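Folds abound. Consider this:
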Amino acid sequence: MIDASKAWLQNTLPVQFQPFVSRWRDDTCALAQQFTPWLLNGEHLGHWDTQHQQTFEKVFNAAGLTCTVTSLGIECTHTSGPQALSAKLASAGNMLKAMGLVPGWRHEEQLVMNSLGEVLATAERALFKTLGFRSRAVHVHVENHKGCVWTGVRAMSKHENPGMLDNLAAGGIASAESLDSTLWRELNEEAGLNSDDFAWIEPLPPHELVLSRPLLYGGWHHETVMLFRGQLKQGRRPRNRDGEVGAFQLMTSEACIEAINDWQFTPDAALCCALALATAK
């Protein structure tokens, strides 16, 4: 896995993407100083906004996750296994939701994992950004047979980045899903596509990126993103099924570069698209 830091983007993307790179935020930006690490059993697993730190501590203590402030951050110890930790995080999450601190509640669980990929617990998807846990997601860059890029316009009902351009399909990996099942579920739900619609589809190098940055609207985005790219067969086109895409656009590579630099794409989608265009076959 590669850390998608601003320095890495500067060394990886061609010069035509410099306006986009110059605005990229990572865990070294000024806003990141507003957050403090949350550690579980000595491992850094979350990022807490210091504006809500006292509230988070009270909620975690009430949920049975005793917090201790140390020189490293906020430390908790838990040794009772994934099921018990999941229950405590669910209790904390419901309390934070009642306080209005977990926007975009999805009733969808994702895996809380350590740096070795070991499953520590499951938790509500929306809680990951409130507490800065690392989630997992797929993003799929799709072109037509002439090399133009299919993009989706996010529905105005979306909690995050409504109306912005996105990859044709993108979404989180749920706790009970594999990478492959998430890939095809997202393509089916968001674009009405299945494997028969593609001339080819493959991992986009670098296949796994770790994004870690504070969000302008609150919380911390820490995610492992699995990137794919594919080409539709001639005559095949997307059609949304889940209501999360307002429209589709077929864009030239030049139009995509302009939109990326103008910040018309969501940051994650912009990075996926830029990498695909920079390594086009």
Notes: The helical segments are 6-12, 18-22, 53-62, 82-98, 127-131, 179-191, 253-261, 267-278. The mean pLDDT is 96. The longest strand covers residues 198-214. Residues 68 and 201 are 47 Å apart (CA to CA).
